[in-house]
Amino acid sequence: MDPAINPADTPVVVDLSAADVRARLREALAIYVAAMEYPRGTEHHRAPMWAEHISRPGWRAVGAILADPNSHANRDSPLVAVAYGYRGAPHQWWHQQVHDGMRRFGWTEEATLAMLSSYFELTELHVHPAAQGHGLGEAMLRRLLDDRTERTALLSTPEVDGESNRAWRLYRRLGFTDVVRQFTFTGDSRPFAVLGRPLPLHLAARTLRTPLTTDPAPPL
């Protein structure tokens, strides 16, 4: 169900515990479906995956809840945004896909392994369409990446003509640069970009770049 958003309410970014996400998984997935414009019912297929991710090492989640200006926000306040991620590892599907994508894109094996040796995977970041335009995406991403011990943050996002949507503008504004472009993950026909930046956030984005030994090969 879509959250009932009162224009007078103020979205507040909060940390979400594993118990919070388990208790509000249905609500969080409804935001995911609305933000991604997926057909209703998609949430049923994603629920087991989100639940499994909670147990992964380094998992962290944040969200945004609505706070009535005349009262304090509480855990029962409507959830309007959610983001989470965890420490990447070689046995994970996304890690294996990105490894293959980097090699196809022209990265050397040495550079690929170095990039993937210590990273935080930004797995999901979604703001309900009715709550967009309040800076929640940036606030959540900054909070999620604060004090991480990994060397790099990595994410994948669908390719968009001219990079002209809120997600792309956010990632570029926070210094995420190209790792792989026009990559097709197994089971999804859409082209994706894999973006990354060094951690902590105050480091210059250019320190992430690893020169390719040759011109990048076209993605397969």
Automatic annotation (TrEMBL):
EC code(s) of this entry: 2.3.1.-
Keyword Acyltransferase: yes
Top-rank EC class of the record's enzyme: transferase
Keywords for the protein's UniProt record, in alphabetical order: Acyltransferase, Transferase
GO molecular function: acyltransferase activity
Domain N-acetyltransferase: 14-200
CDD domains: NAT_SF (cd04301)
Pfam families the record matches: Acetyltransf_7
Protein name: GNAT family N-acetyltransferase
